[in-house]
Amino acid sequence: MRNWTELLLIYRYIYIYRMVGLSEGEKEFIKGGIAQDLRSDGRKRHTYRPIYVETGVIPQANGSARVRLGATDVIASVKAELGKPSSLQPDKGKVAIFVDCSPTAAPMFEGRGGEDLSAELSGALQRCLLGSKSGAGAGIDLSSLVVVEGKVCWDLYIDGLVVSADGNILDALGAAIKAALSNTGIPRVNVAAGAANDDQPEVDISDEEFLQFDTSGVPVIVTLTKVGKHYIVDATSEEESQMSSAVSISINRQGHICGMTKRGGLGLDPSVILDMVSVANFVSRQLFDKLDSEISAAEADEDES
Amino acid sequence: MMYSDIGRLNCNVSYTTFAAPVRGQGSDHKEFSSMLHKALEGVIILETFPKTTVDVFALVLESGGSDLPVVVSCASLALADAGIMMYDLVASVSVSCLGKNLLIDPVLEEESYQDGSLMIACMPSRYEVTQLTVTGEWSTSKFNEAMQLCLDASAKLGEIMRSCLKEAASATQE
Prior knowledge:
The structure holds 2 protein chains of 2 kinds.
Chain A: H1 4-19, H2 24-35, E1 51-55, E2 63-69, E3 72-83, E4 94-101, H3 113-130, E5 146-148, E6 152-164, H4 169-182, E7 185-191, E8 203-212, E9 220-227, E10 230-233, H5 237-240, E11 245-251, E12 257-265, H6 270-304
Parallel strand pairs in A: 4-6
Antiparallel strand pairs in A: 1-2, 2-3, 3-6, 5-6, 7-8, 9-10, 9-11, 11-12
Helix pairs in contact in A: 3-4
Chain B: E1 8-15, H1 32-41, E2 53-60, H2 67-81, E3 91-98, E4 101-104, H3 108-112, E5 116-123, E6 128-138, H4 140-173
Parallel strand pairs in B: 1-2
Antiparallel strand pairs in B: 3-4, 3-5, 5-6
Helix pairs in contact in B: 1-2
């Protein structure tokens, strides 16, 4: 008898390649299940798959995390470098978000197929986490990144890598970035006193003292996928192939909307969008609690080892 | 290219080098192409032209704020003018939130100081939203207000676009 993991792998392989075209029966099965609030993996419409969080997976980075949502597997890393603030906003640091889709994550990412999706995901994450141009509503407090106003600030580079894709990549990336940020330690910087006013001040980066990053303001992203008349959270890629449209909403602890992106598909009635917002608000509270406990468990695990 | 039994839509938005106040700044609008694609794909009846690609090219000559909504509305007018089968026109409007105030159709200066923005592309006659993006922090009531404002404005814009097309059509007939 072959062992289980091997069998599961083969099954998965067949599944991925069949994914390109589901049969009529399978499509009906997915749609029918969603209509009856019992999806093909036994979940209800508004239930997430189990979330697994691992922090500190990349020692070279200032903070990193790996998040698994079913077969979706993403890694986020945060690197901090000293830079110069822009002249328009001298009292703020800079944050850049990039996403890369591994060509092995899904058959459609082979060659250059992942590039469009990467750009779309980066754009959506920037909208959801960085707030508007004036900096209001940003999940990351940019003014906490300033070392010397107008002269030195931290540049945060947040990189997301999609290792394996099985639907709902944006929510997983949002969760991974939140976990990576709470894992991030920014070195304490001592500024040499007495430098002339217009000179670039001399700085000394501490190897021992790290400042924890405040992540209480970082929102979570909830993507609602509309299949038939109903919408579901955390769609698998089979379910995503049957969607008519999807809306990604990022919501913070206070229940405020921090960003929203509609992802393709057909038109939506405005009343449906408002309803989606209230559903996302409800779901986000559970996701916050789940994620926070997973992150603190992962941090405790890391400290032990 | 692979065979497809429905039509394909290909969108491209680009900026002239002199469009923005600082030369060549327009290049940071890479995602506009995909946003335009999203706004239009739900409107065009792609089933009516299998094995065909429709290319939509938008060139922003001068950027003065609310660029994407203008590009979307303009593209839908061009598609209608080309005789491409569509369910409805797409009218797009954006609002900026500055402090407690909502500003409709913000200009570049207003956009650079905004605390939040909301952009909607909708089909006025069918009353459906095809594209929606939100940045910044919004309470639910504020979001409702802004969305209603956008929808009302795009209904008005839709009227203007419609009469514009009618005028153009009757002018060519004469």
